[in-house]
Design goal:
Layout lengths: L2 H20 L1 E2 L6 E2 L1 H29 L19 H20 L5 H30 L6 H10 L2 H26 L1
Antiparallel strand pairs: 1-2
Helix pairs in contact: 1-2, 2-3, 2-6, 3-4, 4-5, 4-6
C-alpha cells in the first residue's frame, strides 16, 4: 500500500477515534464512549503498527491542546485519572492488531478473541492509572472495590458489545477493503 493511502487510513482512524470520544453515555466516574470501538477497528483493519500510529496520533493531538478527548484536551489531561484508558487504547490496539495479523483463519470468534485481549489491556492500564493518579497524585483516594465497580463493572458490558460489533464488522468489511486497497 502506498504511503499516501497509509497516511489517509491512519488519519481517518485518528478522526474516528476523536469523534468516538463525543459519542458517549454518561456513567459514573468514566464515561462510556465509542473510542474503544474505533481503536479496536484500527487494530483489526490497519494492523498493529498503523493502528497504533492512529491512536498515538489521537493521543498526541489531544495532549497538544485540541479538545478531542471525552473531557477536553491539553497536556494537563495526563493528571486526569481516566487518561490511563487512552494509554490503554494505544497498547490494546497494538495487541489486537498483532493477534489479528497472526490469525490463520479470519473468523468472528478469532476476531472476538483479539478484541477481548485488547479490551483486557485497556482496562488493566486504565484501572492501574486511575488508582495511582487518584491515590498518589491528586489526593482523591479510591479503594480497590469502588475502583472495580466504577471503572470496570459498570463500563465493561458496553465494551463487550463493542467487541462483538467490531468482530462482525471486520469480518464483513475487511475482505472488501482488502480488494479495494490492493
Amino acid at each position: 500500500m502506498s504511503k499516501t493511502k497509509n497516511l489517509i487510513n491512519c488519519s481517518l482512524f485518528t478522526a474516528l477515534i476523536a469523534v468516538g470520544a463525543f459519542i458517549k453515555i454518561p456513567i459514573p466516574v468514566v464515561p462510556f464512549t465509542l473510542q474503544f470501538l474505533f481503536t479496536t477497528l484500527a487494530g483489526l483493519l490497519l494492523g498493529s503498527r498503523k493502528g497504533t500510529i492512529s491512536v498515538v496520533a489521537y493521543m498526541l493531538l489531544g495532549l497538544a491542546g485540541l479538545p478531542i478527548f471525552s473531557e477536553g484536551g491539553g497536556i494537563w489531561y495526563i493528571f486526569k485519572p481516566s487518561f490511563g484508558y487512552i494509554i490503554g487504547f494505544c497498547l490494546g490496539t497494538f495487541v489486537t492488531g498483532l493477534i489479528a495479523e497472526r490469525m490463520k483463519e479470519k473468523t468472528i470468534p478469532r476476531y472476538l478473541l483479539a478484541n477481548f485481549a485488547g479490551l483486557l489491556i485497556v482496562y488493566a492500564a486504565g484501572m492501574v492509572y486511575y488508582y495511582v493518579i487518584c491515590n498518589y497524585v491528586i489526593d482523591t483516594p479510591i479503594a480497590v472495590g469502588p475502583l472495580f465497580l466504577y471503572c470496570f463493572l459498570l463500563a465493561v458490558p458496553g465494551d463487550i458489545c463493542l467487541c462483538i460489533l467490531a468482530a462482525i464488522l471486520v469480518k464483513r468489511v475487511k475482505p472488501i477493503l482488502d480488494r479495494q486497497l490492493s
